[in-house]
Amino acid sequence: MRTWTAPALPSLPGPGIAPRLYNTASSRLEHPPIEDERATLYVCGITPYDATHLGHAATYLTFDILLRAWRDAGIETLYAQNITDVDDPLLERATQTGVDWRELADDQIGLYRSDMHRLGMLPPDRFVAVTERIDEISDAVHRLLARGLAYPVATDDAASDDLYFDTRGAERATQWRLGDVAPYDRDLMAILSAERGGDPEREGKRHPLDPLLWRAARAGEPSWPSPLGAGRPGWHVECAVIATDELGPAFTVQGGGTDLIFPHHEYTAAHATALTDTPLAHAYCHVGLLSYEGHKMSKSRGNLVLVSKLLAGGADPSAVRLGLLAHHYRSEWEWFDADLTTATRRLEAWRAGIARETGEPANAVAVLQQLRQSLANDLDTPVMLATLDAALDQGVDDPQLIADAVAALLGVTL
Ligand code: 5CA
Ligand code: ZN
Asked: What is the pLDDT of residues 115-126, one digit of tens each?
């Protein structure tokens, strides 16, 4: 898929620092291993309807900041992102609104692309829609069947069977264990599976948490021919195949919002391990969910603040970034409309401060060092913002260096 034009990334003097990150799978702060100065990142992309809300933007901004930190540390990056352009909620929305599902997806991908570009996000190097990889995914499910890790479940409304992943079989045959990624107990897993696209109650499964790998064609639903029987892929296997095809196994970081920890990232890891005999990623990083009007901002509830609306209303993209970066990526927080006003004031104060001539300006090289240290500490952007508030209030001895640092590390234009 076409992406968008990359923002300018000024290079900064002196060495940046590779960040340590909180790994959900180990519940610890870690330095993900980086070999040959190359880091690989997969971030779960949008399901293209109701794009792009501020929760999406918060997640993609977090990984944009991670890429900036790596690049500043002299690390080469390879970044892949998928688009879930065929999925139940997307199809339901298309049916409700009487729009062809492909048209809905195309429009929303276009909107996402323009929102990401306007927000100054680094584009993925590989931007892959699920519908571009149906054969590869079908082939992967075939290999899971051949390995005895997939099994059929009979359907009464399709010509062939649905195929499911065998959780217990995978635990016996591979190094993956249920709970490797998600630090949750089984009861919580069952609840989350039911809430997030799984079907723990479906009859005929070997284990309630076994996820769908291949959904046999139903009347009125899109499907593709396959040796598995006509159908379409399950959600987790899509990301397992796209991630490992684009980045190779055992890439550096798998990212997304905390709503993806279970079942999505757990089972993406399970499938990838079963397909490659190697764990999916070294670290699993998750962004706390953004709320609005008292609830998680979500398409299903409809409590959305759309990036395109904010920008159409005159919001400065740098202010939108600052509004999001004022909270640590792992915190769960609520967006209030006043947050944009606060962020816009901060941006104005910084723009005024950078030009201020004072008797005792802050030392820009020291400010850059502080920014890098906070960034390396699990992407601590609120501390970076506080450092810049103080420095720009005081005035700085090298305005160009600070403008470059703010552009390169935070994507904010002064
Ligand atoms: N297509 C799947 C991933 S393969 C998906 O979850 N799509 S999505 O459109 O629902 O979400 C896109 C990304 O935004 C995901 O990483 C998701 O975890 C994140 N996200 C969704 N809602 C929020 C929110 N309220 N706050 C923060 N991140 C969110
Ligand atoms: Zn995904």
From this structure: 999 999 999 999
- Contact between 58 and 379 (Cβ < 8 Å): no
Using pLDDT thresholds of 50, 70 and 90, give the confidence band for residue 201: very high
Q: Report pLDDT for 382.
A: 98
Average pLDDT over residues 261-268: 98
Q: Are 36 and 111 contained in the same domain?
A: yes
Domain count, the chain: 2
Bridge-partner residues for 216, per DSSP? 231
Residues pairing with 29 in the sheet: 22
3-state helix, strand, coil in the chain (%, to 5): 45, 15, 40
Q: Which of 86, 260, 267 to mutate to test the pocket of ligand 1 (most atoms within 8 A of CB)?
A: 260
Which residue range forms the structural domain that includes residue 371?
Answer: 337-410
Count of Cβ atoms closer than 10 Å to residue 176 Cβ: 22
pLDDT of residue 183: 97
* Distance from the alpha carbon of residue 334 to the mean position of ligand 2, in angstroms: 24
268 — phi, psi (to 5°)? -60, -45
For the question of whether the overall pTM of this predicted structure is more than 0.85, the answer is yes
Task: Establish if 5 belongs to a structural domain.
Answer: no
Task: Give me the sheet containing 150-153, strands edge to edge.
Answer: 150-153, 162-165, 212-216, 231-233
Test site for ligand 1: of 59, 112, 116, 293, most ligand atoms within 8 A of the Cβ: 59
Q: What is the per-residue pLDDT for 299?
A: 79
Is 345 found in the same domain as 210?
Answer: no
Query: Tens digit of pLDDT for each residue in 81-119?
Result: 999 999 999 999 999 999 999 999 999 999 999 999 999
Measured from CB, residues less than 6 Å from any atom of ligand 1 are: 44-47, 55-56, 58-59, 82, 84, 239, 256-257, 259-260, 287, 289-290, 296-298
| Whole-number Cα distances in Å, 282 to 41, 140, 379 | 10, 22, 18
Kindly identify the ligand whose nearest atom is closest to the C-alpha of 256.
1
Q: How far is the CA of 402 from the centre of ligand 2 (A)?
A: 36
Nearest CA owner, ligand 1 atom 11: 46
Instruction: Report the separation in Å between the CA atom of 111 and the middle of ligand 1, taken as the mean of its atom positions.
Output: 16
